[in-house]
Amino acid sequence: FTTQSKAAVLGLTIGMAASYGVDGITVNAVCPGLFESEMTEDTLFKNEEFMRMYNFTDPMSRPGRRGELNGTILYFSSDASSYVTGQHVVVDGGASIV
């Protein structure tokens, strides 16, 4: 269900941006790839086969590190993005382009 839920988030983002833009409300989505987290460190990162496959296909050859989403989130929560709405930004080290 991961693919369907991601598509739903993107559709919801676009729909909400279209509906609330007139009120000056911006709606955007940050789409993270594989990141180090409490959830992944004890599962995915301990699976050697998964890590070999991921390191082969990811252009940056590593998962995202803690804190590497911060800049994107800060951008969307600042006035610098006041004219940006209905967008999704993928932060995945290039994994989605291969």
From TrEMBL:
InterPro entries: NAD(P)-bd_dom_sf, SDR_fam
Residue ranges of coiled coil: none
One example GO MF annotation: oxidoreductase activity, acting on the CH-OH group of donors, NAD or NADP as acceptor
Family statement: Belongs to the short-chain dehydrogenases/reductases (SDR) family.
Protein name per Swiss-Prot or TrEMBL: Short-chain dehydrogenase/reductase SDR
Lineage: unclassified sequences, metagenomes, organismal metagenomes
